[in-house]
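TOKENISED FOLD:
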Amino acid sequence: MDTHGLKDFMPNLNLLPRALSLLLCLISYSLAADDMARTVKLAAEDNWAPYAESSGSGLSHSLINSAFSRVGIEVDSIVVPYARAVVMAKKGIVDGVFNLVKEKSTQDQFIFGKQALFSATASFYQSKQSPLNVESKWQLPPNTRVGIIDGYEYGDELSELPNIQIIKLSNHNQLINLLLLNRIDTAIMYDLVAEQYIEQMRVSSEIGSTFINHTGQVYLAFSKKNPEAEHLAEMLDTGLTALKNDGSYQQIMSSSFETARHLDMNLKP
């Protein structure tokens, strides 16, 4: 037997460890890429019922989870105060942030899909015992104290309003309490959210809306730090389209609002 010729067909055992190491690296990379494609990490706010609640439930959760599930992506949400959620998305700690209103102050800082989750209208609210006798936000008297939630978006026109003093607070309970104490003259709140908190605090006879501030388009916004942001936005659009085409979108909207109304009825004395 020609043993010299046989050696030409025998594997080089010295190369096996390197080959195995390369194979393991390729498998690990494939699994990591697969996880990236199938899971999205999001920051959800904790104080915007009925859209997003501290329990990790609400309309936005239902829409986002359902839309991503249609395209095979699992949602991993962390519930934090809204201002922190926005910062986390800006820094790339999470892939995206719930319930961002697309306007001049946000559209250059985040990646948005083509479809909003929904639209939401915000109005000015005031104490019925100390009403402001004006018919629009442009007529507010000098030094009007306007309460808002720190970090929320209230439309591009807010910075253009004359005569106002902005007072930033951390939650809706504070806004309503300061209205009751006449520590602020008016507060801007999104209407469905305001209804929830006014009913919970049982002050509907004391606090009411006056005129509209704006209507905003509310999105799940994605971090520019994430190289997959454009792809995730496209996947969300695809999922939302699927929900709308088979009627699931409207069912989720109706169910969420019906639940909110039911809770309000249970809270009334």
Summary: Confidence is low (pLDDT under 50) at residues 22-36, 261-269. Residues 16-38 form the longest helix (23 residues). Residues 59 and 253 are 7 Å apart (CA to CA). The radius of gyration is 26 Å.
